[in-house]
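Customer escalation, tier 2.

The customer says the design service returned an amino acid string that "doesn't look like it belongs to this structure." They asked us to rerun it and document both sides in this ticket. The original structure tokens are below, unchanged.
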């Protein structure tokens, strides 16, 4: 068996001589104009230009006069954007790095073959009636073992056949267009519509000055005065409606009359097809001598690790210290019982269950006894102590039902709510139910209509009930040897209305023992401005009495921002602790494959591609379907914590989700971060901002 990855080493011999230039600017916010200025240089001077490592890197030497002329034009055309720009100067002291070389190939040279790649991919499109599925590609720069490299990925976009201009003309209120995902017809830019800018008559001159593409200028010149102009993405790029096409997400399918299940089946790309498509793109790049063959475990043995080589074990500890495998979790629970039983049920007391049943939901005649039987198999008695039918899912009716149930002589330990499948909608019955129960500290479980007829879901529901009522179903059989505690750290972010940036609603920390048993959660409830968790907040999340002298692995959902690392290290030093910082990045990570008996297949859980001593890609979980390709995580750390330890800590905590019989993609320390943050942003949070019950399950 061979493992390989969609990452390719760059052919250094084919690279031109590169030159670095530094922006002379009146403030420190260079990134906002770095890429824009690089794009302008290519349009004006030719060659290839990219923004890399806070420098503009290109393959042309330019004179000070040429730069001066371009800057003066930009001052006139876009004074707001470029008012602090003073010039561009060659940086002769900057040594071109592997990262700069990788960026240059990914974002510079690949533009030369973009048309040929798109033509090749167009042969893989699928028709779905009102929509079509287009295969697109992405290129990203990496440094692998100090060598510049690029990844090639393929994505599937569900495109509405009616373009944005035609659709927008049918909408009575333009504000209904906000939130629609669109893509620039002339590039790969894809994002949500964030604002309605106005009509073209008021913006034509400005838009013509902003673009250097002849096609874009022709489109703007030929468009009527009343054509809509919209802002796209957090960078707020302005587009006329006819320049955009609509990209559908699965949640949009019903609104646009598209069969979501049929779309989903085609959107998923099985490993062999995905690998074949990427190979066809790579061949085009190889003909230009940009890249070499992909990294493989056969040729690059030191870069590929397995779950065994990092010491990972899927063994779990159940009742009476009995050991079982993760893939035999349910049978082990039935055989041995839970790892730790809550005091309420220590004398074999039953779990009291209250039920709220919404209108037009499935009969519970079969479901309720089946759930009791499932809990009994897990060695828990249960008793239903009340059922309240409600005819409308208004907040007042839901709250009245909860009040009645909580006034029963036998007060329920948990309330189950059965409603129709609308939990993702804003203001849904789910939001109302959870707002009341979580806010009052009442364990609760929302069960959608479709779940009541799914016998396979019973195990998950029973497991979630045990976790939410204070039991610990299982823990790691082998505690992490390098840590006393593991912390998951996240910030719930909310976009500002009509402004760039975000208002960070709250910081959330989940604290686990080294065997994965939850110690507590802690929520900092004051709104935080900006991208960084402030020093006083970080310190409050890591109090001395719990963390002094401890070895602590900190899983950050995404990147550490601003000075968070320095603050954490300083605080650790002050309290005599060791903080090991681990970033877990979920988006835009290259995929890993296995080649077995002549076939391209899914990799194994725990397969790792090691970029360096501090960075790796990890296959943390496998999708339930064999025809899907798993999405790895990007793991980053820093010495003295090794990348092997960081990967091991993440992989181990994917085994400990009490709401599912399957492992999770993210470690439980940060799993459901988006869900928890989303609830908090809606005001759905526990009244006690510290607790020991995982209410988010």
């Amino acid at each position: 068996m061979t493992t390989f990855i969609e990452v390719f080493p760059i052919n250094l011999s084919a690279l031109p001589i590169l030159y670095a230039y530094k922006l002379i600017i009146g403030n420190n916010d260079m990134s906002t104009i770095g890429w824009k200025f690089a794009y302008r240089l290519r349009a004006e001077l030719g060659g290839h230009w990219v923004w890399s490592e806070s420098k503009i890197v290109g393959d042309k030497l330019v004179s000070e006069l040429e730069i001066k002329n371009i800057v003066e034009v930009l001052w006139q055309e876009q004074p707001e954007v470029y008012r602090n720009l003073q010039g561009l100067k060659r940086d002769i002291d900057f040594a071109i790095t592997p990262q700069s070389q990788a960026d240059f190939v990914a974002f510079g040279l690949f533009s030369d073959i973009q048309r040929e790649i798109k033509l090749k991919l167009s042969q893989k499109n699928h028709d779905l009636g009102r929509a079509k599925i287009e295969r697109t590609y992405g290129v990203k720069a990496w440094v692998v073992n100090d060598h510049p490299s690029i990844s090639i990925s393929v994505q599937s976009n569900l495109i509405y056949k009616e373009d944005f201009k035609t659709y927008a003309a049918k909408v009575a209120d333009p504000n209904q267009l906000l939130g629609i995902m669109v893509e620039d017809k002339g590039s790969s830019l894809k994002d949500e519509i964030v604002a309605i800018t106005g009509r073209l008559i008021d913006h034509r001159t400005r838009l013509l000055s902003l673009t250097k593409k002849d096609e874009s200028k022709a489109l703007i010149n030929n468009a009527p005065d009343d054509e809509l102009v919209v802002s796209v993405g957090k960078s707020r790029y302005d587009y006329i409606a006819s320049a955009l096409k609509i990209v559908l997400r699965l949640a949009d399918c019903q609104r646009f009359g598209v069969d979501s299940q049929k779309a989903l089946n085609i959107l998923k790309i099985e490993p062999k097809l995905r690998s074949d498509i990427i190979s066809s793109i790579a061949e085009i790049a190889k003909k230009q001598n940009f890249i070499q063959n992909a990294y493989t475990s056969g040729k690059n043995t030191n870069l590929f690790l397995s779950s065994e080589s990092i010491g990972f074990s899927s063994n779990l500890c159940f009742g009476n210290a009995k050991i079982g495998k993760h893939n035999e979790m349910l049978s082990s629970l039935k055989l041995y019982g839970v790892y730790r039983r809550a005091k309420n049920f220590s004398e074999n007391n039953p779990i009291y269950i209250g039920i709220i049943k919404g209108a037009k939901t499935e009969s519970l005649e079969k479901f309720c006894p089946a759930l009791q039987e499932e809990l009994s198999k897990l060695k828990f008695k249960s008793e239903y102590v009340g059922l309240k039918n409600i005819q409308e899912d208004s907040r007042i009716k839901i709250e009245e039902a909860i009040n009645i149930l909580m006034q029963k002589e036998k007060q329920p330990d948990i309330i189950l709510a059965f409603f129709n499948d609308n939990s993702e909608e804003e203001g849904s019955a789910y939001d109302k139910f959870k707002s009341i129960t979580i806010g009052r500290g009442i364990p609760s479980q929302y069960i959608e209509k479709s779940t009541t007829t799914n016998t396979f879901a019973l195990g998950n529901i029973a497991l979630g009930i045990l976790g939410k009522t204070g039991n610990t179903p299982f823990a790691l059989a082998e505690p992490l040897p390098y840590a006393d505690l593991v912390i998951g750290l996240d910030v719930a972010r909310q976009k500002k209305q009509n402004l760039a940036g975000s208002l960070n609603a709250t910081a959330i920390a989940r604290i686990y023992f080294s065997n994965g048993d939850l110690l507590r959660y802690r929520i900092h409830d004051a709104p935080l401005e900006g991208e960084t968790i402030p020093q006083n907040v970080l310190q409050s999340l890591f109090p001395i009495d719990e963390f002094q002298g401890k070895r602590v692995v900190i899983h950050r959902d995404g990147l550490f921002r601003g000075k968070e690392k320095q603050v954490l290290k300083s605080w650790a030093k002050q309290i005599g602790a060791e903080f090991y910082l681990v970033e877990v990045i979920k988006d835009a990570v290259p995929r890993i494959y296995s080649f077995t008996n002549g076939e391209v297949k899914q990799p194994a859980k725990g397969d790792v591609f090691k970029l360096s001593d501090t960075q790796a890609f990890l296959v943390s979980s496998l999708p339930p379907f064999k025809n899907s390709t798993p999405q790895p995580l990007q793991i980053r750390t820093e010495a003295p914590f090794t990348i092997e330890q960081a990967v091991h800590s993440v992989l181990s905590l994917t085994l400990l989700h009490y709401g599912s019989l399957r492992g999770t993609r993210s470690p439980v320390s940060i799993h459901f971060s988006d869900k928890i943050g989303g609830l908090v942003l809606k005001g759905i949070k526990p009244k006690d901002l510290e607790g020991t019950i995982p209410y988010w399950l």
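Tier 2 assessment: The sequence is consistent with the input. Residues 19-95 form one domain. The CA atoms of residues 475 and 516 lie 6 Å apart. Sent an explanation to the customer and offered a walkthrough call.
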